[in-house]
């Protein structure tokens, strides 16, 4: 059973496996601070030697205990007992760390772990996450629920698109204003609208009958099962403990 009392709230690195020195933990904490300010959430690293849970479940539970369900954050799990790496994401980190981006992070973390260069593995997780966050959510990004197949698209507007929309709206508003103003200014004297000549009213009786109705449904197939996600700008999500999580992992 997951025991949240073991983990201190707000502590960036929970090193139960003893992989890092005090200086290394301080370095990782500094790197995480910049990310936390950007995402308005928290990122974590947790290590363990005696976990018996599925790594995905352990990581999701750990992240939930730190920040709650559906808030912004992520955690890197280094499971030394089961020789597993897992990244769990929540909130806006699901969108920043897409499946393909998580795969890239795992590539770098895996290299460090197989060489027993644990600080490099942890550092890669934080620095690459920071880089992806600065790059922003990919255009055309979407979430795919792996259990239901439901696809939710994420609308991304660039700064240029936003600026263009504002300028266009301002121009159109100005044109409409001056047209309306010129039409209703009435500089040539008092104007009387000939309502008797111009008005016309006719009421027709119309009756509609519903004869047939059709409902078209389409089943969205589930994406193929995987541990780390797929290509493109999508994020595969799953439900756990009342929250929605993304993520991926692999053995080392």
Automatic annotation (TrEMBL):
Q: Gly residues compositional bias: what residue ranges? A: 227-252
InterPro entries cross-referenced by the UniProt entry: TPM_dom
* Segments crossing the lipid bilayer: 153-180
* Region called Disordered, residue ranges: 218-252
UniProt signal peptide: none
Question: Which parts form a coiled-coil structure per UniProt?
Answer: none
Q: Which UniProt keywords apply?
A: Membrane, Transmembrane, Transmembrane helix
Q: Can you give the residue ranges of the TPM domain?
A: 13-127
| Name used for this protein in its record | TPM domain-containing protein
Species for this entry: Enterococcus aquimarinus
């Amino acid at each position: 059973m997951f025991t949240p009392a073991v983990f201190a709230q707000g502590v960036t690195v929970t090193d139960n496996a003893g992989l890092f020195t005090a200086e290394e933990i301080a370095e990782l904490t500094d790197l995480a601070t910049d990310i936390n300010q950007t995402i308005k959430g928290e990122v974590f690293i947790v290590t363990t030697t005696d976990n018996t849970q599925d790594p995905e479940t352990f990581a999701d539970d750990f992240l939930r205990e730190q920040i709650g369900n559906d808030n912004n954050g992520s955690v890197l799990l280094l499971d030394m007992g089961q020789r597993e790496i897992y990244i769990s994401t929540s909130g806006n980190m699901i969108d920043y760390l897409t499946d393909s981006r998580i795969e890239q992070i795992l590539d770098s973390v895996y290299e460090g772990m197989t060489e027993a260069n644990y600080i490099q593995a942890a550092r890669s997780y934080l620095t690459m996450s920071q880089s992806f966050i600065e790059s922003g959510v990919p255009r055309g990004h979407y979430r795919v629920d792996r259990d239901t197949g439901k696809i939710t698209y994420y609308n991304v507007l660039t700064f240029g698109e936003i600026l263009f929309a504002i300028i266009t709206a301002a121009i159109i508003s100005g044109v409409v204003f001056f047209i309306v103003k010129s039409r209703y200014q009435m500089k040539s004297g008092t104007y009387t609208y000939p309502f008797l000549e111009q008005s016309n009213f006719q009421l027709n009786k119309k009756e509609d009958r519903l004869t047939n109705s059709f409902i078209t449904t389409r089943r969205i197939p589930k994406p193929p099962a995987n541990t780390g996600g797929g290509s493109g700008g999508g994020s595969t999500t799953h439900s756990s403990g009342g929250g929605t999580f993304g993520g991926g992992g692999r053995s080392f």
